[in-house]
Here is the input.
Amino acid sequence: MQDKPRLSCQSTPAASLSSTHLLQALLHSLKLIAQDARQQHNVSDGFVPDFRQQFPRAKQATYSTPWKWRAFETISVVEAATLVTNPFTAALSLFHQSGLDFPFPGTNPIFEYHSAHVVVLGAESSFAFLRALGATHVIDWSSPSIAATVQSILGSSVINVVEAYGSAHPTLAVSLLEVSVVSGTIIMLASSAAADTAALADKGTSLHNVYGSFEAHPILFRQWVAALPKWLSTGDMGVLPHRVVRGLNPQAVNVALDDIGKGGGVRYVVQVHVDDGDGDDGEEARDI
Here is the structure.
């Protein structure tokens, strides 16, 4: 069974976790097809995600992200290249007004992240990993009784649902909120239609679309970039498994995009500048 986490939902009370654990658990579930093919630049003091290289599949290929920040001391430049779109999208889903609007870590000491349930849907092979990241409960995404299991875990109404896998309609998320007696919020990855938003609003449910754009959210982006090195150094967040595509090889990149589209859970870094001069590519040539 492939790892295909689809959704995280958060409600109250009971458990022990931090805001960064919540972010990390959600991060593992996020999959943005076409935005996981990364270019990694070999520069001594930082990396520039400048995704402008055209590949044959034009709808998946053109990027322009002129942001630059210093690479982190605790991870390699290749690993840093995986911390671009998906982690920031997770942060937007949790800490921005377009998402759940929770306080950014360290800005509100009285907000009780530690009293939250974090229920994550994933494949059985990912259960231990998801719990290690901070999920308080994990449910097999193929289970026929997801809604009933979530209700049993929470013992109360679902409040917030994050659809962490891009889909046309929030069918699963809606099923979790249908039995709630309070208004709820659904966060989706910029994929739901206006008709869904209007229909859910009539039922008291808010539907928000989130798109991980640095340019559109510069204030949160700067907060996130400033906090990320600390989270990495303390182990509150870590680099997730990924695979390196060496060189600008359109065929290899398209194979990677196909794999991402299948929801297998592997993240890819495109190593643009490959130096074979010393005969040792080290981390660049291996899966991490």
Observations:
- Confidence is low (pLDDT under 50) at residues 1-17, 28-66, 278-288.
- Residues 218-234 form the longest helix (17 residues).
- The beta strands are 7-11, 37-40, 117-122, 137-140, 160-163, 184-188, 205-209, 242-246, 267-271.
